[in-house]
């Protein structure tokens, strides 16, 4: 198995695979302060809810490092500004807010310590988040592999692999596990317009690991589902409400509707950190709308006429009734979702 290291923190620098450049170039983006991290998250140098959460945690480390020489009151003031900046870098992926809250709580719990000691605690916590993500992904992969039969054909949407996490992946982690346990699977990967994360990133990961697969345009998926070519659909999540409604990359809802019409199992694969226990339904999830150029241009080349208006939501919400199950590190959650999801909080 080829290891893909999306994130690495070394010698007070955060190194990220620049996912804007793949597959054409493999380049590393260096974050030397929290402002670089804010940019990396906003501009999608790094993307995928778990990866964003871990990246933000190291952004807090960089901020604390920058303010080490400040007086204590000034340190707390400047850290608050940095935390707020990072927290607002993207609005939908709840792992971001989860990681920032975890860091805020840690700072509050240790406010009587010296600035240097608080920095050390922050660094330890970021490292824990990093390690937990890999362990969580491998646990999800094992649970998810239970639903994958021998010779299954799997459909994926967007990128849910190592590049979307610290390592291994969510939905693509299940694919990896099935492949490495000899289940002779085959994968169809949606290209995932407008940023082509499936075509650029998922396809790259599948090729790197020699998993049998084909890349398809998004609008091919319905035909494959109708014709009985898909055994199961696996997608990730950016935020899950307590009733099971799930926000994921735009196009996920459409797939879920077609899957339901043709009785194809449709599973979400996401860590419990992606569950927002403070919201009841998907109607409460803020959907990020991104720049029009993502639709009107590809690799800087205009493909749409000047003057056309664009609607470009980054995510949509799949209602719980279209979801066969939610694969988490604690097992597979099924309906009734509200009752079963809330039990994960304990």
Structure commentary:
The protein is of the alpha/beta class. The two termini are 35 Å apart. 40% of the residues lie in helices and 16% in strands. A hairpin with a 2-residue loop joins strand 1 and strand 2 (13-17). The model has no long low-confidence stretch (mean pLDDT 95). It has a seven-stranded mixed β-sheet with strand order 6-5-4-7-10-14-15. A three-stranded antiparallel β-sheet has the order 1-2-3. It has a three-stranded antiparallel β-sheet with strand order 8-9-13, with helices on one face. It has helices at 34-42, 49-66, 72-87, 94-109, 115-145, 171-180, 197-208, 221-226, 252-261, 293-296, 337-342; strands spanning 7-10, 13-17, 28-31, 153-156, 186-190, 213-216, 232-235, 239-240, 246-249, 266-269, 297-298, 301-302, 315-318, 325-328, 331-333. Helix 2 (49-66) runs antiparallel to helix 3, helix 2 packs parallel to helix 4 (94-109) and helix 5 (115-145) crosses helix 6. It is built from eleven helices and 15 strands.
Structural class: alpha/beta
Low-confidence stretches: none
| CATH topology tier name of the largest domain | Rossmann fold
Helix/strand order, N-terminal first: EEEHHHHHEHEHEHEEEHEHEEEEEH
> How would a textbook summarize the main sheet?
7 strands, mixed
Return Rg in Å.
20 Å
Shape: globular
Find the CATH superfamily of the largest domain. Translation initiation factor eif-2b, domain 2
Placed side by side, the strands forming the largest sheet appear as 6-5-4-7-10-14-15
The amount of beta strand, in percent, is 15-25%
CATH class of the largest domain: Alpha Beta
């Amino acid at each position: 198995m080829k290891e893909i290291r999306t994130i690495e923190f070394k010698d007070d620098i955060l190194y990220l695979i620049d996912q804007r450049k793949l597959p054409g170039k493999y380049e590393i983006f260096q974050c030397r302060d929290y402002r670089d991290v804010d940019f990396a998250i906003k501009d999608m140098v790094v993307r995928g809810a778990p990866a964003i959460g871990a990246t933000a945690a190291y952004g807090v480390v960089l901020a604390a490092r920058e303010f080490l020489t400040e007086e204590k009151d000034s340190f707390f003031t400047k850290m608050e500004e940095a935390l707020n900046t990072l927290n607002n870098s993207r609005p939908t992926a709840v792992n971001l807010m989860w990681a920032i809250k975890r860091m805020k709580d840690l700072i509050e719990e240790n406010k009587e310590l010296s600035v240097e000691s608080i920095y050390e605690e922050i660094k330890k916590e970021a490292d824990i988040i990093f390690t937990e993500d890999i362990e969580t992904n491998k646990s999800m992969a094992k649970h998810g592999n239970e639903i994958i039969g021998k010779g299954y054909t799997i459909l994926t949407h967007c990128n849910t692999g190592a590049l979307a996490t610290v390592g291994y992946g969510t939905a693509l982690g299940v694919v990896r596990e099935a492949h490495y346990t000899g289940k002779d699977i085959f994968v169809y990967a949606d290209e995932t317009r407008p940023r082509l994360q499936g075509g650029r990133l998922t396809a790259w990961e599948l090729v790197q690991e020699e998993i049998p697969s084909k890349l398809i345009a998004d609008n091919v998926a319905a035909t494959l589902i109708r014709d009985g070519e898909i055994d199961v659909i696996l997608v990730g999540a950016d935020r899950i409400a307590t009733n099971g409604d799930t926000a994921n990359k735009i196009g996920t809802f459409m797939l879920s509707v077609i899957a339901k019409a043709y009785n194809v199992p449709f599973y979400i694969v996401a860590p419990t950190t992606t569950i927002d226990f403070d919201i009841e339904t998907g109607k409460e999830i803020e959907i990020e709308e991104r720049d029009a150029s993502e639709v009107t241009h590809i690799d800087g080349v205009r493909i749409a006429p000047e003057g056309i208006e664009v609607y470009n939501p980054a995510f949509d919400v799949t209602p719980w009734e279209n979801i066969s199950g939610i694969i988490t590190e604690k097992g597979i959650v099924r309906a009734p979702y509200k009752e079963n999801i809330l039990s994960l909080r304990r």
